[in-house]
Specification:
About 20% of the residues lie in helices and about 25% in strands. It contains ten helices and 27 strands. The strands form seven sheets. Strands 6, 7, 8, 13, 14, 16, 17 and 22 form an eight-stranded mixed sheet that branches. Strands 9, 20, 21, 25, 26 and 27 form a six-stranded mixed sheet that branches. A hairpin with a 6-residue loop joins β1 and β2. α6 crosses α9. Manganese (II) ion binds next to loops. The site of manganese (II) ion has 7 residues, from loops.
Length: about 425
């Protein structure tokens, strides 16, 4: 696959995140336009609500795009997803005869505000990165017990909160929580001191299921992927997590990027999962290459200061694919719903600079990270902005996700003050 040229010239630069090959899905508004669905092309957004109203896009049981979420398209199913992609590709390709009618429907991204791209039905987060699980397990339980006995057999997950999923740019408030006292003294209620980020990809489920699905079926159910920061309060987590896993430590906020990159756009970047140490049971066995070669990085900017890259890794480092996670999720008969969001788990590579959380980068605070400003970080400080970045590199083109950013605000002085 090489660059597909567009008459939107900004889309044709080899390092631009939004070429015609990409066409990611978002929800935007401007001073004069209410929030609605659009796709990014170069530096612009194509207003799909108006394109549909003018008869340029007619797919499924429309209208689908005059609403501030993509869920209505999800429910139309993969044939309609493909028809939309084919139609948009034709309209925006260099030499398209409809150019004169489409051009007035382009809105500069610089003048648009981005919103949540879809209504999150439910949110599940996994723990499916081998390096991350080994690092965290070593710190929490010691090297001998780093990987729990089930880890190589099932993608471990927990049911998170859809209500606190927010779009890039939304500030996040440092939470209060119950923290373990020193030397097993009584716990105390205080602001988290070990507030962290987690670099993840989120799979957006586009199709419903009733009953168990295979890994191959699960892959077909996925509409696309977003960047995802699973903010984590490590001190709250360390006290609360046994025996049922994270609860309040992960409930403050989950930030997702504003653009859903479709599975179709990522097809050329499929890669197999790593070699299996023990074979997976047949219902979770690999059914083709279902990870993706996507470069990931994290930058951290203290308030008013320049950003430093603190981690760089690749989504292909995961042990389980989102399709395997989704298949596992349905084994009990649990129905899945369009708009369900599955966090991949923190993406860490084998090298130190490839670790996707400060917990790992600073090894629990023992080895603080030095920023370009000269400041040190073990965990996040008030005012810090964390930004996740992702790019798949093709032949003369890039599939980008747009930044996924959030600034950490100071804890309230007294969360119960009325
Ligand atoms: Mn996580």
């Amino acid at each position: 696959m090489s660059l597909m040229p567009s008459w939107v010239e900004s889309a044709n630069a080899p390092d631009h995140p939004f070429p015609l090959n990409n066409l990611p899905c978002g929800v935007f508004s401007t001073e004069t336009l209410d929030p609605r669905c659009g796709v990014a092309i170069g530096d612009m957004i194509l207003d799909l609500a108006r394109a549909e109203a003018e008869g340029l896009v007619e797919v499924g049981a429309g209208p689908l795009f005059d609403v501030p979420f993509w869920n209505e398209l999800f429910e139309e199913g993969p044939e309609v997803w493909a028809a939309l992609r084919a139609r948009l590709t034709a309209l925006l390709a260099r030499g398209a005869p409809e150019r004169d009618r489409v051009e007035p429907l382009l809105v500069p991204q610089a003048g648009a505000e981005m919103h949540m791209p879809f209504l999150v039905a439910e949110y599940t987060d996994f723990y499916a990165g081998r390096h991350h699980a080994t690092n965290v397990g070593t710190m929490f339980r010691g090297a001998e017990n780093a990987l729990p006995p089930n880890w190589l057999h099932i993608p471990i997950g927990y049911n998170g909160r859809a209500s606190s999923v927010v779009v890039s740019g939304t500030p996040v408030r440092r939470p209060w929580g119950q923290l373990k006292g020193p030397e097993d003294t009584a716990p105390r209620f205080a602001p988290s001191r070990r507030f962290d980020l987690e670099l993840e990809m989120g799979a957006v489920v586009g199709q419903a299921s009733e009953g168990p699905v295979t890994v191959a079926e699960a892959d077909e159910m996925i509409f696309g992927y977003v960047l995802l920061n699973d903010w984590s309060a490590r001190d709250i987590q360390a006290w609360e997590y046994q025996p049922l896993g994270p609860f309040q430590a992960k409930a403050t906020a989950t930030t997702i990027g504003p653009w859903i990159v479709t599975r179709a756009a990522l097809e050329p970047f499929r890669v197999p999962a790593p070699e299996r140490e023990v074979p997976l049971l047949p219902h979770l066995a690999d059914a083709g290459p279902m990870l993706y070669d996507i470069e990931l990085s994290v930058t951290l900017a203290p308030e008013g200061e320049a950003a430093t890259e603190i981690a760089r890794t690749n989504y292909r480092e995961m042990y389980y694919s989102s399709a395997q996670q989704l298949a596992h999720h349905t084994t009990s008969g649990c129905p899945m719903t369009p708009g369900d969001l599955l966090g991949s788990g923190t993406v860490s590579g084998p090298e130190k600079h490839q670790r996707g959380s400060l917990l790992e980068l600073s090894w629990g605070g023992k080895e603080p990270v030095t920023l370009d400003t000269g400041e040190a970080r073990s965990f996040l400080e008030d005012g810090d902005t964390v930004t996740l970045h992702a790019a798949a590199r093709g032949d003369g083109y890039t599939i980008g996700f747009g930044p996924c950013a959030g600034q950490l605000l100071p804890a309230l002085e007294d969360p119960y003050k009325r």
